[in-house]
Write a structure and sequence with these properties.
With about 130 residues, the protein is an all-alpha fold. It is built from three helices and no strands.
């Protein structure tokens, strides 16, 4: 097995930063959508709007968890770099592996959130058709 060097965890910095930017953009879009749906629901208490709000609530919590896992992954990458710097190479390998698992979990939640988002669009399309 090749030795883990300082450059290995730094490679994740740009990837995780871009992922977190995408997650933040999603969150901001959801915030705007919450305001819009609330206005619609206050005007008329429709079942479609209520279903959209319930769907959005799930997506918000998933996005929050995606962000937490992504930030945690980045945090453990920094810890890995510190451990390499002070010479604790064996421990740094395990911490870096944990950081990768957190990133995998974050991406997995992202896939789940995308599926839920598609359901929200289906609800909206059904409303337009019906």
């Amino acid at each position: 097995m090749n030795e883990l060097t300082l450059t290995t965890p730094t490679l994740l910095f740009s990837a995780v930063s871009l992922i977190l930017l995408a997650y933040t953009n999603r969150f901001l879009s959801y915030a705007q959508l919450v305001r819009t749906l609330k206005e619609q629901y206050v005007k008329e208490h429709s079942e479609v709007t209520a279903a959209q709000i319930a769907n959005l609530r799930k997506r918000l919590y998933l996005t929050r968890n995606m962000q937490v896992l992504g930030i945690s992954s980045l945090f453990f990458c920094v810890i890995t770099m510190f451990l390499i710097y002070i010479g604790l190479h064996a421990l740094s390998v395990y911490i870096f592996g944990f950081a990768l698992l957190l990133l995998i979990a974050s991406l997995g939640l992202s896939i789940w959130e995308i599926h839920i988002s598609v359901k929200a669009l289906e609800i909206h399309l059904q409303n337009m058709e019906g």
